[in-house]
Amino acid sequence: MENAPRYDKRLQRKRRQQKRRQLKRQHRQNSVTGHAGRRTFLIVAGALMGNWAYRRAGDLVFSPKALQLSRQGLLTSNDSGRVDFQSASPKSPGSESLDRAAPAPIASSPVQLERITIAGIPLYRTIINLRDPDTFLSIGLANRATKANSGKASKGDEPFKSFVNHYPAAVLANGTFFSMDAEKRVMGNMVAEGRFLKYSRWENYGTTLGIRAGNQAEMITARTEGKPQWDQHWFSITSGPRLLKQGKLWIAPKSEGFRDPHVLGVGTRMALGFPKGGDKIILATFLRSLSLEQEAKAMKALGCYEAMNFDGGTSVALAHRGKVLLDAQRPLTNVLVVYDAKNPAPQALKDSWLRFQQGDRPVPTT
To answer: Do 103 and 59 touch, CB atoms closer than 8 A?
Structure first.
């Protein structure tokens, strides 16, 4: 009986320690910083493993569910090891509560390609959903080259049908301009799968479409807006002239460096743009000759807020799931490659996309 009080104290101390450990675990799992529409989860090794993300050997590792949210722009990471989760519905400022249930990921939707007529102009319209977890945009080079043609090295060109055989993608389309000399140099700097295919610090020609972390699309005309941050692009391709800027017609080809009458006149064209939200890419392959102004008005009618012209004329080409809809009338040096759930991207491409979201960036090479 003399030991009873001492035993009770030990039991009470043990219970207090257990309670503190329990509260500490709950605090780690529920630690949230709150402000309007945004929540930041503190990542603890194993705390949310398999649901969101976790730390392993100093690297931030996303689970498949987190990968989907990241593709939708709802989940991003920063250098401090935190994962930012963009809430689907804003909450009041100062709120410290957060439902543990995540918003349902957007269902995978295959790339949409259809033939339509708009304002009397027949065209193929391709819609590339940048929020879709299985959709990826890349660049294919002639003869399986790892670097785009430049003044230093060239792998030449090849027929469009050969590209279709090489890349079992949802959609293939002709890419940007290239020179007609023996080198067949592609226009501008080029980034695909988070690495440079071509780089020169002197490039300031045309207009660049870039896709940044979080699948955020941007369009920059170098000579009027300053050079793009190519080393912040997961995907980047330069062409032109620009057609739309902030929802308005913007056609100044000579200010971008274009002098070729085939570009300035009337011809068969292909264009690319995106709506104001930047959540999708709209690719238009026109089936009759147009002026730049007609092309710009058509892209605006398709819902684009920003748009640019691409290589056209005898380069125009389009394939859908292995079927060639339009064959180029000359060999090409580069093509746009679009993967989706039905025609999935190679695992190496998906891995490189994930590394880019985690902070890896393309390194310029001279």
So the answer is: no
In contact, 205 and 220? CB cutoff 8 Å: no
Instruction: Tell me the C-alpha distance between 133 and 136, whole Å.
Output: 8
Q: What is the pTM of this model?
A: 0.75
> Residues in the chain with pLDDT < 50?
1-3, 5, 30-62, 77-104
Residue 223 — φ and ψ, nearest 5°?
Answer: -75, -15
Measure the CA–CA gap between 101 and 82, rounded to whole angstroms.
19
**Domain regions of the chain by residue span:** 19-105, 112-357
| Token pair for 210 | 């870039």
CB atoms within 10 A of CB 112: 15
* Cα 111 from chain centroid (whole Å): 14
Task: Say if CB 39 and CB 87 are below 8 A apart.
Answer: yes
State the DSSP code for 241: -
At residue 221, what is the residue type?
T
117-152 pLDDT per residue, tens: 998 999 999 999 999 999 999 999 999 999 999 999
- Residue owning tokens 């090295």: 153
Q: Residue 126: beta bridge partners?
A: 113, 283
Place of tokens 């920003």: 306
Rounded distance between C-alpha atoms, residue 314 and residue 363, angstroms: 34
pLDDT tens per residue, range 257-309: 999 988 999 999 999 999 999 999 999 999 999 999 999 999 999 999 999 99
Contact by Cβ (8 Å): 38, 86? yes
H-assigned helices in the chain: 4-30, 64-71, 160-166, 222-225, 253-256, 261-264, 292-301, 347-357
Strand partners, 220: 208
* Coil, strand or helix at 239: strand
Task: Give the residue carrying structure tokens 């972390």.
Answer: 213
Count CB atoms within 10 A of the CB of residue 307. Answer: 29
Quote the Cα angle for 351-352-355, to 5°: 90
With vertex at residue 98, the alpha carbon angle to CA 21 and CA 109, rounded to the nearest 5 degrees, is 125
Q: Quote the DSSP letter at residue 188.
A: S
